[in-house]
């Protein structure tokens, strides 16, 4: 019953309905509250004017929603009628149950009549506080709305069920709680008074005894109010209009608007609608039962989640404590090794100290003895022992010279703790798989016979284990940075083979693979070590070259069809390491000035190399050369090229320098410094020049020797 209370309260005042009326939208409102929220509309919107113009046929005309703003879009608490230029903005209030309502535009006139009979302002409009539909009242005003007698009866029964216990009316001293009420006697009895004053025999045996609460309701409702017609107030409802879906009186059928409508007996429709409502309630009752069971399930889930959380946290703490204990045990073992090394070093040094002390004492004694012998003045006696003493002195000296004065042990501890794998494992410590009904896929297997490297690219292939029954939806390939750093994802997809380009030359990479599905991810495969090429083998790239460039010799030889300079790049880019390549001049006519160097991938292709800020080059003719970057010419150097000449380009990204050679001799100083990023070998030439590229070459000896000295 308590859940029903909100259904019994007015959306305007928030209290139980008092004399509720039914609006055409089927919502209810107190009669007094309905009068309070009336708003007067302009004359042009009245039902009379609409009927005169033929625009409306019903007694209640709903306002065009495009002409009325029922409540503020910004939830400011204000509403206004936007279609009326003269209508002032009317503040909006909120009822206790949170529904917006509109107060009257003017205070109601003082009257001694009831709210139902009091006159309503001409051309009044009422807005339903629940669905916000608006309508204009006719001449009958609020009397044109039917009264909800059923709702009144439900409210009375609800209030009686919530009322205090009724007392016996015949107890002489302290009245006891009444147990029954006699409808004929209209008296409440307790059990002793009923047996004494109202025995169930004789004429009293025909009296009807009811529970006290029911008796009070029947007392309040007696005599029962009869529902009358809203159009003909003196007539009772006798039939039901099927088309209008409302009770009507016989006068409505004779001369009213329902005269041509289909009607049925009021009692029959009453029973039919009760049956339909009961059937609808059965379905709703099933949904309510399911909702209650679902709420019980959710509450049980809350409890289970709390219990599982405590259990999981305890398990996590235990696992982490076990890791800490294992680390402490390993720490103790490593400290024991350090202490052992410490004791060993001390023992060796102390033994050497003891040995040197004895040896020094013997040497000092020999020295003092020899000094005393030298003091003797007997030549013959001195010569008899001098040879032996000389041999002893030399022998002792030789003994000191054979590493005796070199420490047998260093003070440094030749131990270095490699903790990077453990730190990496700690960083990767995570929840691999949650509890689930379906398993994760098996760990993929790397197919070593199909894994290889070429230049700065690596190709890896893998497969699922032969006996694996859990399908994988995809794979994740990870590589480190080539310097022992953290792994990073380089491929995610369904394929079982992947080629990774753009790696560093002469670098060692670690690769691993794992599978995943909707449940989670597998364990990592074994780590595969990949070594990229020490030197780069590459050709010119037709895809990025200017269209005037002509390729031959497997894209190792290039020339041009235009008299203007055109740029061509190598296929391989460099971002790390030392790289050297050469170009031989196959044809050189009319003394052109080709340019050689490096460039970014987006360098201009229709001008000489070095004209923009994306290239670093040396351009050379038959007598001299210049360095050029961003159209800035520097370091003019004597010495040019002819047919058969060789131009070398040395890109040292470790020292961030670019150096040029002509015929194995360095051309000028270091051309450019502080070069870093990704660079591609580049050449610009015209139709008077043809060059051939040579790659995979070692660094010139002269540069290697200077680099080692530096």
Automatic annotation (TrEMBL):
Domain COS: start-end pairs: 374-432
InterPro entries hit by this protein: B30.2/SPRY, B30.2/SPRY_sf, Bbox_C, ConA-like_dom_sf, COS_domain, E3_ligase_FN3/SPRY, FN3_dom, FN3_sf
Keyword field contains Transferase: yes
Keyword hit for Coiled coil: yes
Catalytic EC class: transferase
Catalytic reaction(s) noted: S-ubiquitinyl-[E2 ubiquitin-conjugating enzyme]-L-cysteine + [acceptor protein]-L-lysine = [E2 ubiquitin-conjugating enzyme]-L-cysteine + N(6)-ubiquitinyl-[acceptor protein]-L-lysine
GO cellular component, one term: dendrite
Domain annotation B30.2/SPRY: ranges: 517-700
Main location: other
All residue ranges annotated as the Fibronectin type-III domain in the record: 440-535
Coiled coil: 288-344
Domain of life where this protein originates: Eukaryota
Pathway in which the depicted protein is active: Protein modification; protein ubiquitination
Signal peptide: none
Sequence ranges assigned to domain B box-type in this UniProt record: 163-212, 224-266
Matching PANTHER family: E3 UBIQUITIN-PROTEIN LIGASE TRIM36-RELATED (PTHR24099), E3 UBIQUITIN-PROTEIN LIGASE TRIM9 (PTHR24099:SF13)
Assembly and interaction partners: Interacts with SNAP25.
Official protein name in the record: E3 ubiquitin-protein ligase TRIM9
Organism ancestry: Eukaryota, Metazoa, Chordata, Craniata, Vertebrata
Gene this protein is translated from: TRIM9
């Amino acid at each position: 019953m308590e859940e029903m209370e909100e259904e019994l309260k007015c959306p305007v005042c928030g209290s139980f309905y008092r004399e509720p009326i039914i609006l055409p939208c089927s919502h209810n409102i107190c009669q007094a509250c309905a009068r309070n929220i009336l708003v007067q509309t302009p004359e042009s919107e009245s039902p009379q004017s609409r009927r005169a113009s033929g625009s409306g046929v019903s007694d209640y005309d709903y306002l065009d929603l495009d002409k009325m703003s029922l409540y503020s879009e910004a939830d400011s608490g204000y509403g206004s009628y936007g279609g009326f230029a003269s209508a002032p903005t009317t503040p909006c209030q909120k009822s206790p149950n949170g529904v917006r309502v509109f107060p009257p535009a003017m205070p109601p006139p003082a009257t001694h009549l009831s709210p139902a009979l009091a006159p309503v302002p001409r051309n009044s409009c009422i807005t339903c506080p629940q669905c916000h539909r608006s309508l204009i009242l006719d001449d009958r005003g609020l009397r044109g709305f039917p009264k909800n007698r059923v709702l009144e009866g439900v409210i009375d029964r609800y209030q009686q069920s919530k009322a205090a216990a009724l007392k016996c009316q015949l107890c002489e001293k302290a009245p006891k709680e009444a147990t029954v009420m006699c409808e004929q006697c209209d008296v409440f009895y307790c059990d002793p008074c009923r047996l004494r004053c109202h025995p169930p025999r004789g004429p009293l045996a025909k009296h009807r005894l009811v529970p006290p609460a029911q008796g009070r309701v029947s007392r309040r409702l007696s005599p029962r109010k009869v529902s009358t017609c809203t159009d003909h107030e003196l007539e009772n409802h006798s039939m039901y209009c099927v088309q209008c879906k409302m009770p009507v009186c016989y006068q409505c059928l004779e001369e009213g608007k329902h005269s041509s409508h289909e009607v049925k007996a009021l009692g029959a429709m009453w029973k039919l609608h009760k049956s339909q409502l009961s059937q609808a309630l059965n379905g709703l009752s099933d949904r309510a039962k399911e909702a209650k069971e679902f709420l019980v399930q959710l509450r049980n889930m809350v409890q289970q989640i709390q219990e599982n959380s405590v259990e999981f946290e305890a398990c996590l703490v235990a696992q982490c404590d076990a890791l800490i204990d294992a680390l402490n045990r390993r720490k103790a073992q490593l400290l024991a090794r350090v202490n052992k090394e410490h004791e060993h070093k001390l023992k060796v040094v102390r033994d050497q100290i003891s040995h040197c002390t004895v040896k020094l004492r013997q040497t000092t004694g020999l020295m003092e003895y020899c000094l005393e012998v030298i003091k003797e003045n007997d030549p013959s006696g001195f010569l008899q022992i001098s040879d032996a003493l000389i041999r002893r002195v030399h022998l002792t000296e030789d003994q000191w010279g054979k590493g005796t004065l070199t420490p047998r042990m260093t003070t440094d501890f030749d131990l270095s703790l490699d903790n990077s794998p453990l730190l990496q494992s700690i960083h990767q410590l995570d929840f691999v798989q949650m509890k689930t009904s379906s398993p994760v896929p098996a760990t993929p297997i790397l197919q070593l016979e199909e894994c290889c490297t070429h230049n700065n690219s690596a190709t890896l292939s893998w497969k699922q284990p032969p006996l694996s029954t859990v399908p994988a939806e995809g794979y994740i390939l990870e590589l480190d940075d080539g310097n022992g750093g953290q792994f990073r994802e380089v491929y995610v997809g369904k394929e079982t083979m992947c080629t990774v380009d753009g790696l560093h030359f002469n670098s060692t990479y670690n690769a691993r693979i794992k599978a995943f599905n909707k449940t989670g991810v597998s364990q990592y495969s074994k780590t595969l070590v990949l070594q990229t090429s020490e030197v780069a083998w590459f050709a010119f790239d037709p895809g990025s070259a200017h269209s005037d460039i002509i390729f031959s010799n497997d894209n190792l030889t290039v020339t041009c069809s235009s008299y203007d300079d055109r740029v061509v790049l190598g296929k391989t880019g460099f971002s790390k390491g030392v790289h050297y390549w050469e170009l031989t001049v196959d044809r050189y006519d009319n003394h052109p000035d080709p340019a050689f160097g490096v460039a970014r991938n987006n360098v201009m292709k229709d001008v000489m190399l070095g004209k923009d800020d994306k290239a670093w080059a040396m351009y050379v003719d038959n007598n001299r050369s210049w360095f050029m970057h961003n159209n800035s010419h520097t370091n003019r150097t004597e010495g040019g090229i002819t047919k058969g000449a060789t131009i070398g380009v040395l890109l040292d990204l470790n020292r961030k320098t670019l150096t040029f050679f002509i015929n194995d001799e360095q051309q000028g100083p270091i051309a450019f410094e502080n070069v870093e990023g990704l660079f591609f070998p580049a050449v610009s030439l015209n139709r008077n020049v043809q060059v051939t590229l040579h790659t995979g070459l070692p660094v010139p000896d002269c540069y290697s020797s200077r680099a080692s000295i530096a």
